[in-house]
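@channel anyone free to eyeball this complex?
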Amino acid sequence: MDKRNSSSILLFFKVHIRSIVLHFSLALTFLQTGYSQINKTTYSITEVTKTIYLIEPIDHDYRWVTSNIILVINDHDALVVDSGLLPSAAAGAIQEIKKLTNKPIKYLGNTHWHGDHWQGNETFAKEYPGLQIISSERGLASINRNGMIWANQFYLRFLERIYKNFETEASTGQTADGVKIETEELAKMKIALPKLKADIEEIKNLKPVSPTITFTENLTLTAGSREIQLHYLGIGNTVGDAIVYLPKEKIIIAGDLVVYPSPYESGAFSKEWLETMKKLRAFDFQVLIPGHGEVQRDYVYLDYLISLFEEILRQLDQAYRDGASNIDEARMKVTHETISVALGKHAEFEKYLKELDPTFVSKAIRTIFQRVIEGKL
Ligand SMILES: [Zn+2]
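replying in thread with the prediction:
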């Protein structure tokens, strides 16, 4: 064993023992928050600057995704952006926040109406009386319409169905199509099932809290020596996405306009989203914090997303000119592969293309055709 190997083993033990101690103390404190330990969301913390942190959920397979939570510590108070899917996810984040600052959270920004970004509001509001929750005007309208329907009905329905499917798959060891599930995946599924069940119980008891302050185009807050800007840039991942910009620090908090390492397509792909991304690109920033996934410290990933959207729209336009008149014909001509080949010409995009959700292009085509049918293009 060479010296490098032995020192890395030593490092492994140090880190491992530290994490065991840390987990033990967290287990004790978490019980005091009143939320179940079973489905606790654990986070990794990235120090963006001495006063700005990304609280990023550690992957939890087979459960509904929860958002990044961003902490901005000001001179006398703090701002948090997004609050997680569940009250317990918010409680887990608050535990992390309290290790980083004892200043009160004065502002909570909700970037958009998807439940993984705002359903934790109730926990923050309870923990920090006087909290002001901010969203764009369109964001609030969407929370009060779509968000409330999801919080009160759809999540429960979806999660119960998902739970039932996983339960059957775990007990039979195969998918509904009869494909054998690998032992490793089965083990993950069995660990996830009780967590998913606890998530469902939490969803049943949600007491959704809406934003209290809205803005139309933009809003500037002064918090001690810090300037905080909130902007609405147009239709994107939803109709009401807000971004946060810290001009002195040159940091963008992008919500799900940017998701790393692969964008989400939940029926929003459009020319308008592309235009909004170009407006985002015009900001002078050094750090971009996505709605999910790692901190980006340059423009490359955003450039890749812009190129990806442009290429899908360009190839679809060409397919239409070549006679593709329905969704199936378009999907024959424009595929994950045709898009990958076109973008693969840019060496700097290669690593992102490997991570691109293989269903993204197909879903984007469905959305575009849906919008054409609905007369939105
Ligand atoms: Zn999200």
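from a first look: The first helix runs from residue 3 to 31.
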